[in-house]
Design goal:
about 325 residues; alpha/beta; 8-stranded mixed beta sheet; 11 helices; about 35% helix; AB_hydrolase_1; AB hydrolase-1 domain-containing protein; AB_hydrolase_fold; signal
């Protein structure tokens, strides 16, 4: 009797493990039972769709064309306090888009750091915005910017990384510096990023289990200034937030973390200056008080890559891009140097 019971228990355990580890299928926009397509989209060469939104002056009249790359749990509808007056003054065209799996852009199981750059390049070509463009990425949206710097530097007019994502396992970081910065994160963040990096096959289970906390925003990750900004943002009508994860939390949020914290094909210190003749510039904007992105690591990268113009905001937290005055400063520095 013992052997059959043991076999039954083993089979049951394997079945439970399979279900616990296997993400659900995505609900693809425009498919039967999936969310409707309500945004403009382009079809990429591999058959996937990217949804996009345009702002500013018409691209045919624009002097500057910027592709904005949204961060974690966000979309092409991200709010940026860029005034119409500024866009008309400088003749700025802005292209926002949903990264793979977010909003109304198709999921991409093979999503990677490298694929992000070529999605951006193909989107620019499909919309005929010209041979060169500016890119600006915020937070998690900065790893696609590093990808652009590595794989399509010839397409770039200028670059801004705002409170940019850092990979704690980049070989370029001294071990003690990375360990100290990583240790400043909440324990739940440390566990989550370790699992994403070392055991990605466990990630869906980790993010859906209820025994231990995973990622949560609060006093441990946001500064007083961040909370003030959030309070002001709550007074602005939220647009599109209900669509961010509509195709599946795994396809949007989880794959984003997995792609970012996977082993990269390159190290930031392998990236060459895309503007050796000073025909453009690369900027990092970092909040000194940021509790989510430790300033020490981006400061270190900027010291090792002297062609990066590093700006440290003394009292800034993680949401500095939502400060209207600073946002305008970031845009002017990107476009006008």
């Amino acid at each position: 009797m013992i052997a059959p019971i043991a076999v039954a228990l083993a089979v049951g355990l394997l079945g439970w493990a399979y279900q616990a580890l296997k993400p659900p299928p995505p609900k693809i926009c425009g498919s039967p039972g999936g969310p409707p397509v309500t945004s403009n989209r382009v079809k990429l060469s591999d058959g996937r769709h990217l949804a996009y939104r345009e702002s500013g002056v018409p691209k045919e009249e624009a002097k500057f064309k910027i592709i904005v790359i949204h961060g974690f749990d966000s979309s092409k509808d991200v709010y940026l306090p860029i005034t119409q007056e500024l866009m008309e003054e400088l003749k700025i065209y802005i292209l926002f888009f949903d990264r793979a799996g977010y909003g109304e852009s198709d999921p991409y199981p093979s999503r990677s750091v490298k694929s992000e750059a070529f999605d951006i390049q193909e989107l620019a070509d499909q919309l005929q915005i010209g041979p060169k463009f500016y890119v600006m990425g915020m937070s998690m949206g900065a790893y696609p910017v590093w990808s652009c710097l590595k794989y399509i530097p010839h397409r770039l007019s200028g670059v801004a990384l705002v409170v940019p994502f850092v990979h704690y396992w980049w070989p370029c970081f001294p071990a003690n510096l990375a360990r100290e910065a990583f240790g400043r994160l909440p324990l739940s963040f440390q566990r989550t990023f370790r699992i994403a990096h070392y055991t990605p096959w466990l990630f869906y289970w980790w993010m859906t289990q209820t025994w231990f906390p995973t990622l949560s925003m609060g006093q441990a990750t946001l500064t007083d200034q961040d909370f003030e900004i959030l309070k002001k943002l709550s007074e602005i009508p939220s647009v599109g937030q209900e669509k961010v994860k509509q195709q599946g939390v795994y396809e949007s949020l989880h794959r984003d973390i997995l792609a970012g914290y996977a082993k990269w094909e390159f190290d930031p210190l392998d990236v060459s200056n895309p503007f050796p003749d000073n025909e453009g510039s690369v900027h990092i904007w970092q909040g000194y008080e940021d509790k989510m992105i430790p300033y020490q690591l981006n400061r270190y990268l900027s010291e090792k890559l002297p062609w990066i113009r590093y700006h440290e905001v003394p009292d800034g937290g993680h949401l500095i891009i939502n400060n209207s005055n600073l946002c305008e400063t970031i845009i002017r520095a990107l476009l006008l140097g």
